[in-house]
What we know:
This protein is α/β, with parallel strands linked by helices. It has 24 helices and 13 strands.
Amino acid sequence: MLDFFTIFSKGGLVLWCFQGVRGPAATAPVNALIRSVLLQERGGNNSFTHEALTLKYKLDNQFELVFVVGFQKILTLTYVDKLIDDVHKEFRDKYRNEFQQKGALGLLNGTFDFKDDFMRLLRDAEESSKVRAPTVMKTFEQSLKSQKTVKCMIETRGEKPKEKVKNKKNKGSKKEGTEAVAAPTKASAGDKQLSAAGEKEELTKDEILQKNREEFFRRHMKAGEKSRSPKPDAQKEKGKKPRVWDLGNSNAKVLDYSNSATNGSAEACPVEEFDPDMALGDKNREPGRLYDLEYESDDEAEEEKVVQNSSKPSVKKGGLGGMFGMLKGLVGSKSLTRGDMDPVLEKMKDHLIAKNVAAEIAVQLCESVAKKLEGKVMGTFTTVTSTVKQALQEALVQILQPQRRVDVLRDVMDAQRHRRPYVITFCGVNGVGKSTNLAKISFWLIENGFSVLIAACDTFRAGAVEQLRTHTRRLNALHPPESHGGRTMVQLYEKGYGKDAAGIAMEAISYARNQGFDVVLVDTAGRMQDNAPLMTALAKLIAVNAPDLVLFVGEALVGNEAVDQLVKFNKALADHSMAQTPRLIDGIVLTKFDTIDDKVGAAISMTYITSKPIVFVGTGQTYCDLRSLNAKAVVAALMKA
Ligand code: GDP
């Protein structure tokens, strides 16, 4: 019934393999398991499906071994878990000496004659599953209910039994956790942030956003100063103009297109209203460079705090204090057990949830870390806390690092060589920052010497075309044709409102091809992920125009609501596409990152669930506020206490 059972080392050596009679070769499914689960830190669940097969696996972290069994997914084999446990125990006991003494070379030369043992274990496991008697329902007399008296079941109004109150409390706290998964509306997400930050409760939502933004820029500025090469003193004296970070007050005005006087048309917008310095933001940056998201990491201080905290309670509890208490947290040359890790993992899970990581994902992550560490022998001077924390940190970085890297500049150059424009489509719900970030990406592309045609395919929302026209005018003012050899670097392709968006995108692409534009950026109308007709229209736009890159724009501000949007957009594109192999979302633009302080969990949830890379991060309202994701910076913010 089994298709295969294989035992290999984490270094990649296959030590032993059982191949079922008619089963497929183990290579392809096992490779898929390694690529998609083990290397991607998705090991929380010890089961994986690959085509028609279910794979179950177990890690031995002490001897660095992996045990994998494969069988047809339509079968319900109840004995597989037992079999894998038995094989694991027997194999490591039988070859313990080889593993301990000979190292990797020993494994290479070793002969693992395990067939007879395996067949015996398989027979035993199969027998044990057959022998098990069918479960019989309890009679009423055997149930707990029968032992209760009628009196204790009567509830008097207003008087709640203590236990119930307690349960209710727990329920409430659970709800808080799950609310993080699916915040129904933007407002509620904002409210959630409000209540999460206890001390901020009296502030209004705007004040909190403003405060978060200031905090973000304060940190960002510090980190930026640290990482960018120090300028010579002479240059410093010349006077680096201080950055103006209070964007909420000043720059919002600059980019506020709701002003009726502006109304998007060139004539209506007096030149003096447009302050290029404000729209540009940081003037000291290198033009055309996409800076990494930076974050001040007070990691070392944090680490010390965590170690201290973890050792403190043990001193108090044991009442022993002194040297013994200090050493208690250290686990010298001992293999880690689940019991050692559980309290730390519980804390880590709560911490992740508090940072806006979806509750289910926090659980899965901690489970994956536990599986990876269980049985691992610890170094002499390491604490359980620091080991778990480090493993979690590595797992988070791994998740954020994309399986597929999107290098827009390289791909644009490639398209240029083929004399065709590179097409990016932006999609997402209303108000997340599609147009603003499209403008930032235009600015970045122009600074890299590429000409851009913006296709105004949001033919629905009033003001959408005018908003893009204003951006186009401003971008042209910042990069006039004179500084680009007479070439207009950005142009708007629009056909007003109410027309078919897919048709306009198609016309724009062919216009761009004829006029020699390097990139076409297609803005689409915001739509709710549940709106089937609008999602069909988007799928059509994408199917008909076959863009090179489909970017989903999601705001970090709404936390896990953005995850729901992304999952549903992706699914809707698959469901509503008429093509046989539907075109899905390729990457994410995560906007409003400046408004969330260190509650960066949505970034983890989004990439964990969909494996889509975060290609750009929007961190403000000026054209220079575009960043690339720096996994380490996000993880540092996430781990910060
Ligand atoms: P659209 O409806 O998706 O096209 O969204 P808009 O581009 O019109 O943006 C909605 C609002 O979000 C505008 O006020 C933008 O200035 C603001 N916005 C966009 N991106 C960011 C960002 O990264 N940070 C901040 N703080 N605001 C942003």
